[in-house]
Design brief:
Layout (H helix, E strand, L loop, with lengths): L9 H26 L12
C-alpha cells in the first residue's frame, strides 16, 4: 500500500484552498475600504 502524502488528501486540499481564498477575499475587501467608496475620484469633481 502506497503512502499518500499529506497535501494530496482531498479534505486537506479543500480546507487549504478555502482558507487561502477566504484570506484573499478579506484582503481585497480590506484594501477596497481604503479607496473611500463615498468619495470617488472622478476627473470632473474639481470643475
Amino acid at each position: 500500500m502506497q503512502k499518500i502524502s499529506w497535501w494530496h488528501r482531498p479534505v486537506v486540499q479543500f480546507i487549504g484552498r478555502t482558507v487561502l481564498y477566504t484570506l484573499i477575499i478579506i484582503g481585497l475587501v480590506y484594501l477596497y475600504s481604503y479607496r473611500g467608496v463615498g468619495a470617488s475620484h472622478f476627473i470632473y469633481n474639481e470643475f
